[in-house]
Amino acid sequence: MPLEKRPNILLVVADDHRADAIGTLGHPVVHTPTLDGLIERGTIFTNTRIMGSLIPAVCAPSRACLLTGRNLFQADGYTYCEPRPSNDVPIHPEYVTLPQYFREHNYETFITGKWHNDGPSAVRSFESGRNIFHGGMSPHDEVPVRSLSGIKEGRPAKVAEGFSSEVFCNTAIDFLQNHDKSRPFFMWLALTSPHDPRTPPPPYDTLYDQDSIPLPLNFLPEHPFDNGELSIRDELLAPHPRTGKTIQKELADYYGLISHHDACLGRVLDCLSRTGLEEGTIVVYVSDHGLAIGSHGLLGKQNLYEHSVRVPFILSGPGVPKGLRSSHCAYSLDLFSTLCELSKVPVLPNLESRSLVPILADKSDNFRDVFFSVYSGFQRSVYDGRWKLICYAMGGEERLQLFDLLEDPLELYDRIEDGSCSAIVQRLLDSLQEWQNVNGDPTINKNENVAPHRLVQSASLSQTQLYNQ
After folding, report:
1. Which of 60, 213, 319, 456 could form a disulfide with 342 if both were Cys (CB 3.0 to 4.6 A apart)?
2. DSSP string computed for 26-41
3. CA-to-CA distance for 380 and 376, rounded, in angstroms?
4. Residues in domain Sulfatase N-terminal (predicted)?
């Protein structure tokens, strides 16, 4: 395709946004008019999930998968390294990133917002960037930021003036207003919202009446058993056992952050329209992972329940059908090949990423048969489109959970003791073992014929060791 006819790409990556926390999807509380409009003008994949993480900072490896289109064990550059850094995941220099690949095809690549991977991968991916937060989390009103050249040269960060979502979206608007239209652009706009600290600015801090917010239908005061990660930082943000009032307060602030960044994104999309760029721009909205925030007695994302592994995934623009809500299962890392095909950029071979364009064109009924997710060294899950098995190994003990997601999407009823499901369990275990072996899951000791659900002894390690493993 001639360069001038290739679509622009605006890729928005949220932080901690659950897949169900969008108004037009039927959420009973949260207001998201910008995202609602984006869905009406485009397509949402309602069953999109991440592959997971080997560290508690789920953001970093999930973003590495998204950026490289590779499975977790490839994308995580420290999978086989000891000790590993505490919060970022370096991307192997031999792996081309999504923005880097578009840069190589003469796109102007620009970054603003959160970058949770290594600095060199950012430098090779983008031509320019401003107000970049290089890290995992910070106060929203005191975000330390640098330019891309500042990251390259190792200059210290400076605290930005303003609230995180406003800073990043204002920077995106400035780029759009000054963009040279002779070249297509690829913009990485990565928010730190709605990640904690959950401190929405006025008037969004009082937008939701916490006393009237319904609790999640799968709310529990405590998780029913030790999943290996009940004392992680995220789970200590509220006391145990959880109370309804506590979770309502967390939800009010969480929804406030989402509605605030939704409004900020609305200004970015308005700018696209004013500058005549809207019709030629593919807009993507995706999150790096979900969040429990009261579901199953948990607060964080260090688990493999649906609320934590499923993410919103919205596409709009050239080549994307309007008003389509697809229930096809997908990984968020499928974005790599999808954007390539939509942009008529050659699709890179040998990636885990698969293009979703056949689904957009209604020419595919069977995308993938089975999906896998990972958390640290002691949780694994496998999902076949209906049945989902979660495997735990903590302190030498093993535990399995089985859910029928067609009948029980909130994972309320564990079917593992149902004798009629034994064949299903074995089939899923066999599938998991094959996937682990083929993809080099580092927790499997292939020389000792370890059972497919026996992972490693990581659950007995301290929190500090878990961050450094």
Report:
1. 319
2. T-SS---HHHHHHHHH
3. 9
4. 7-342
The per-residue pLDDT for range 389-410, each reduced to its tens digit, is: 999 998 778 999 999 999 999 9
At 443 the pLDDT is: 79
CATH classification of 3-360, choosing from 3.40.720.10, 3.90.1150.10, 1.10.8.60, 3.40.50.150?
3.40.720.10
Q: Which residue positions in the chain have pLDDT lower than 70? A: 1-4, 77-88, 364-366, 444-469
| Count of C-beta atoms within a 10 Å radius of residue 375 | 26
Q: Is the pTM of this model over 0.90?
A: yes
Predicted confidence at residue 366, as pLDDT, reads 58
Q: What is the CATH number of domain 371-468?
A: 3.30.1120.10
Residues of the chain with CATH 3.40.720.10: 3-360
Residue 438 neighbours by CB distance under 10 Å: 9
Q: Which amino acid is at 76?
A: D
Residue 92: its pLDDT value, please?
86
**3-state class percentages of the chain: helix first, strand second, coil last, to nearest 5:** 35, 20, 45
Query: How far, in Å, CA of 279 to CA of 31, rounded?
Result: 25
